[in-house]
Amino acid sequence: xxxxxRASVDTSSSDTARRARRVVVxxxxxxxxxxxxxxxxPGWAVRSxxxxxxxxxxxxxxxxxxxxTALPEGATALLQAMPDHVxxxxxxxxxxxxxxxASKPLEEYALAYSTGDDATKVSVTVAQWSAxxxxxxxxxxxxxxxxxxxLAAGNVKVAGEKTGSYVVVQDEDDENAASALWRNDxxxxxxxxxxxxxxxxxxxxxx
Length: 207
What we know:
eight-stranded antiparallel β-sheet, 8 strands, about 30% strand
């Protein structure tokens, strides 16, 4: 009888140990699945900036109703790269500026685009530096200065290769206004104006 009792105790201990191991394994699987769910699919623990909504064909194919202001004589390649129009938004002014002169850009311009209605007008500042590092440093400084709700952010790509970054921020003092800032290699562009206009143009601007 003593041997039978000992065997029963040993079997019971063995079953308890197996159950304990199963509990540990199940718990480990649950933890792994939770991590995969959080940082893989569906990604609820990964906070990323929203992407701009797809632009409609109607907006992208819209035609201007006013004439573009001519560029000054002897315009540089950078200034010539600024479009006459983007959809129905037309360049209505183009002048030199020095608002970013502290960072010593090679050239710098202030432009404006509009449909002819001043309520839709946006201001554009564009400049170019001799090195990508200098343009990136200015981009980071300008991005820090933008205060308000971030509407979109991401990478600028040309032929599939990353050439810079962009961010769109709603003005913290005026919910109807926004700024879009982006860097493409050695060029930085800052666009400010009505939220809807900025969100449209930043996705169709060719530079």
